[in-house]
Amino acid sequence: MALTRQTAKVQVKQLLDSHSNNPEITPEEARQEFADTIVDIVFDCFIGRTTQVNGVSSDGATVTGTGIIQET
C-alpha cells in the first residue's frame, strides 16, 4: 500500500532528526543515507497506487485505462 503524504512527512522528519548534529555520523554518511532513505520514501508514496490514464487510440477514439503503479 502506498504511503500517505503525512506518513512521508513524518518519515523524512525522523530521518533529519536522527542525523541532526550527530557527531557520530560524518556529513558524507549523512548525505548518502538521506539520499537512500528519501528515494525509498518517494517510491513508497507511488508504488501500489491506482492510477487512471487517458488517451486516444489509433482510430481517434478516447480510451481510459486503470492500473496499479509497479516498480520495474
Write the layout of secondary structure elements.
Elements: H1 5-19, H2 27-46, E1 50-56, E2 62-68
Antiparallel strand pairs: 1-2
Describe this structure in words.
With 72 residues, this protein is of the alpha+beta class. The chain has one domain. 49% of the residues lie in helices and 19% in strands. The chain is built from two helices and two strands; from the N terminus they run H-H-E-E. It has helices spanning 5-19, 27-46; strands at residues 50-56, 62-68. A two-stranded antiparallel sheet has the order 1-2. The radius of gyration is 19 Å and the shape is elongated.
Cα-to-Cα separation, first versus last residue = 16 Å
Rg, alpha carbons: 19 Å
Strand order across the biggest sheet? 1-2
Largest sheet: 2 strands, antiparallel
Question: What key phrases describe this protein's structure?
Answer:
single chain, 2 strands, 2 helices, alpha+beta, two-stranded antiparallel ribbon
In short:
The protein has 72 residues and is an alpha+beta fold.
